[in-house]
Amino acid sequence: MALVLGASRGLGFLVARELGRRGHDLAVVARSPEGLEAARGDLEATGARVVTLPADLASRPAAESVVEAADRSFGRLDVVVANAGIIQVAPLRALDAQDLADAHDAIFWSAVYPVLAAIPVLRRGGGGHVVVITSIGGKVPTPRLLPYTAAKFATVGFAEALRTEAGRDGVTVTTVVPGLMRTGSTRNALVGGDREAELRWFTALASLPLLSMDAGAAARRIVAGGLAGRPEVVLTPAAKVGLRVHGLAPGLTQRALTLLDRLLPAPGDDPPQPGHTLPEQPWWQRLLTTLDRRAAVRHHELDDETPRR
After folding, report:
1. pLDDT at 292
2. Any signal peptide, and if so, which residues (predicted)?
3. What is the 3-state secondary structure (H, E, C) of 99-126?
4. If pLDDT is split at 50, 70 and 90, which confidence band does 187 have?
5. Residues 250, 57: Cα–Cα separation, whole Å
């Protein structure tokens, strides 16, 4: 049985569907009950038994209750996928400390609380697999993504350190490091500063085939790597190159990314709000982001527009 966190839409939904196709029954978690119900039919079509567990995983009691409910529903736990999160796209001047706290709640603690609760259950069953989905932003500092990057760096550290100790209990921990993927999630990103301009560059990059990856293909590679117990899965050629360059010459990459920031829209100071609440993009932007918008329909991004916490 697989417990998938952040599974109502986007990559989490696709990972859950891939696990269902591979014969796993599913306990799926998200904050939105409506979003989970919208995804349920597609997940059940894989032949899996599906239990939906609405919860805010940033709450430790709620996260522990989710693990208990999944174990109680199926009598065992074999796989845990930590994928819950938010993303804030904004310049520094549009952010405050609460934005960083929100990101850590939604990304870091929403992985830590349920994974730590699941380890004894996995141990009791003789072992299993933990898959923690992070980001290239958790390895390489990225402009306009400060809260996201800080939370993802923390999550990478948690996953890598956890692997060093969980193995004695037969539990493998896989750190997944995706680059840009065409999930359609950009419309639910929290966008600040010059909001419309920030959303334009972010959605454009997420739609370009040479820079971004088909999310279904990414889900297949994530599941294959997690079930094989690989230490790390890096997705997209750009992410692989970025990791290698940053590892060899971190000063060089930081200088290059500082220059990149100056090519992005002039910083504004409007606080972040969901991308789907902004005015409709111009026709040329909609044409440029066709792949991302189609992905949003397929991956239930329109069915779960859970607002900022």
Report:
1. 84
2. none
3. HHHHHHHHHHHHHHHHHHHHHHHHHHCC
4. confident
5. 33
Secondary structure (DSSP) of 161-198: HHHHHHGGGTEEEEEEEE--EE-SGGGGSEE-SSHHHH
Helix (H, G, I), strand (E, B) or coil at 61: helix
Specify the amino acid at residue 28: V
Specify whether the CB–CB gap between 260 and 238 falls below 8 A. Answer: no
CA dihedral 11, 136, 210, 241 (to 10 degrees): -150
Catalytically active residues are 148
pLDDT score of 80 more than 90: yes
Please give the average per-residue pLDDT across 153-159, as a whole number: 98
How far apart (Å, rounded) are the C-alpha atoms in residues 220 and 223?
5
The encoded tokens of residue 40 equal 């349920």
Cα torsion 44, 46, 52, 54 to 10°: value is: -120
**Cβ count within 10 A of residue 129:** 22
| Residue 1, SS3 per DSSP | coil
Domains observed in the chain: 2-298 (3.40.50.720)
User: What's the DSSP call for residue 277?
Assistant: G
The answer to whether the beta carbons of residues 304 and 8 sit under 8 Å apart is yes
